[in-house]
Design brief:
alpha+beta; Helicase, Ruva Protein, domain 3; 47% helix; elongated
């Protein structure tokens, strides 16, 4: 099959990967778009394996509060600029949506979650291929909301530090004031 510029561009739009990588993936898969996407994801896993020994000391803590829980997860990367990259942020936002809407209790649950038809781990692999840096979900924690409690959720230093506090009260209370104090 002839690999046209429009086919390469279509794969690039789907994956965000560079034109040459897209052309190579399409050539290797005889123009099959689905196989090319899968090949690029496998390459992302290979990149992750190669870079696994690189220290991923940067990243962000993401805090999520819903009516029945408060949760935090860390999405780590090697360098500060990557934590501000739009693909990194989009991946984090997809993970936030999963935590808000699904029963997530571990990093593994988070990676296996599907949001808007997209598996978080598949999106992670796409970002790995595009950015070529060690990126991974490192930590996950959650507090279930108990009766007569409020959460305080606070992010500091552009997401480097995340804090969830829980205040309990007896009887009736001004929950908005307690939440502000928390």
């Amino acid at each position: 099959m002839q690999i046209t510029a429009s086919l390469v561009n279509e794969l690039r739009q789907k994956t965000g990967v560079g034109m040459m990588q897209c052309k190579k993936a399409l050539t290797e898969t005889d123009g099959d778009m689905d196989k090319a996407v899968e090949l690029l994801r496998k390459q992302g896993a290979a990149v992750a394996a190669k870079r696994a020994d690189k220290a991923a000391k940067e990243g962000r803590i993401y805090l999520v509060e819903t009516a029945d829980k408060a949760a935090a997860f860390e999405l780590s990367c090697e360098t500060e600029p990557v934590s501000n990259n739009e693909d990194f942020v989009a991946l984090a936002n997809l993970a936030v949506k999963a935590v808000e809407t699904q029963a997530i209790s571990s990093v593994e649950d988070l990676k296996n979650a599907v949001v808007d038809g997209v598996k978080i781990n598949d999106r992670l692999q796409d970002v790995l291929v595009k950015i070529q840096e060690n990126i991974d979900f490192r930590k996950f924690g959650e507090l279930k909301k108990a009766p007569n409690t409020v959460f305080g959720v606070y992010s500091h230093m552009k997401g480097k530090i995340g804090v969830i506090t829980e205040l309990a009260f007896e009887g009736s209370a001004d929950e908005a004031a307690l939440k502000a104090a928390a």
